[in-house]
Amino acid sequence: MQDAGNILEQMNDRSREVFRRVVEGYLETGGPIGSRTLTRSMNEKVSAATIRNVMQDLEYLGLLGSPHISAGRVPTQTGLRMFVDGLLEVTPPSDDDREKINATLGGNSDDVGTMLDRIGNALSGVTRGASLVLAPKHEAPIKHIEFVSLSAERALVVLVFGDGHVENRVFTPPPGQTPSSMREAANFLNALVEGKTLSDIRRDMRQQITARRQEIDVLAHALVESGLAVWSENTDEPDRLIVRGRSNLLEDQGEAEDLERIRVLFDDLERKRDIAEFLELTESGEGVRIFIGSENRLFSLSGSSLVVSPYMNADRKIIGAVGVIGPTRLNYGRIVPLVDYTAQLVGRMISDRTER
C-alpha cells in the first residue's frame, strides 16, 4: 500500500470528496455510508455506480473498509488518520462551551486538585466523552515536617510546603514511639529537608539518613525510616490521573463488540498506574495530539481514540495534560479545539496560583 501521506495529494477532486463525505458521515452516525446516500450530497451529479467504483478504489488503498456484506463503507484507522491530518476542519469552541469550562475556575479558595476535578467534569460534559486530567506534581519546597501520634498503632506525618499546601499521611509507626522520639525525629528531618522538594527527598534522603544516623537515637531513627517509606510509596502518585465521564462512553453503544471494547477501556482506566507514560504522549511538542486506535499505546486494546494536550507552568515547562478519550468516531473538529482551550486555561490557572 502507498504511503498515506502521499495518497491525498494524488487523489482527484471526486475521490477526495467521496472519501471526505464517507468519513464525515461515519463520524456523525457511527455506521457505514452507502453510495446512494452520497449521490444526494455530492457537489457534482454522479451515479451510484460511479461512486461505488471510487469507494472500491479507496478500499483498495486501505482507506475504507466494509464492516458487513453491504455497499456501505467506513474509514479504516489509516483513513481516519489521513482525514485528521489532511482534511479535518476545526471550529473554535462555542461561547456556551467556553462558559461551562470557565465556570469551573470560580472558587479561588479551592485547591488545584478540586479545580482540576471540576474542569474534568465540565470537559466530559461538553464533549460527551471521558475526560482525562493529569494533575501536576506538587514540587514546592517543604517548609516543615511534623509527626503526630493518633494511637499506639497509627501516626500522622504532616508535610507543610512553602506555598502553604499541606499534606497529611497516616502510617503505622515502629513500636515504642514516645512524644520525645517523635519530636527528635521531626527536628532531625526538618534540619535536612527545609527548602527541598519531595523529589529531592526521595532522591537523596536515605543516603543522608545513613550518613547521620548517629545524631539520633534508635527509636527516632526507626520513625524517620518509617516516614521515608511513606513518601516512597507515593512516588507514582496514581491519584494524579483524574478520569471523569466514563458513563458517556456507554451511550449509543448498541453492538456487543462495541460494549466489549468499552469494558476493556474501563478496565484500562481503572488499572492505569503508569502516569508518566500518559504524560510522555504529549512531550514531543506543544499543542494537541490525536491517537487513533492502535496508535494509542495506553488504550490500544479498546480501539479508542485519545485527543490530548499538555499544559505548562509559568516557566513553559510541561507539568500535566488534559485529554478526551472515546470511540474512534469522535467529533475531532469540535473536540480538538476544546482540549486545546482547556489545556491553555489550566496552564494559566496553575501559573497564576504559583505567582501569588
Mind explaining what this structure looks like?
Negative regulator of class I heat shock genes (grpE-dnaK-dnaJ and groELS operons). Prevents heat-shock induction of these operons. Keywords: Repressor, Stress response, Transcription, Transcription regulation. Pfam families: HrcA. This is Heat-inducible transcription repressor HrcA. Belongs to the HrcA family. There is one protein chain. By secondary structure, this protein is α+β, with helices and mostly antiparallel strands. It has three domains: about 5-85, Arc Repressor Mutant, subunit A (Orthogonal Bundle); about 95-135 and about 240-355, Beta-Lactamase, CATH 3.30.450; about 140-235, Heat-inducible transcription repressor hrca homolog, domain 3 (Enolase-like, domain 1, 2-Layer Sandwich), CATH 3.30.390. It contains 13 helices and ten strands. Strand 4 (about 140-150) and strand 5 (about 155-160) form a beta hairpin. Helix 9 packs antiparallel against helix 10 (about 220-235). The termini are far apart. The mean pLDDT is about 80.
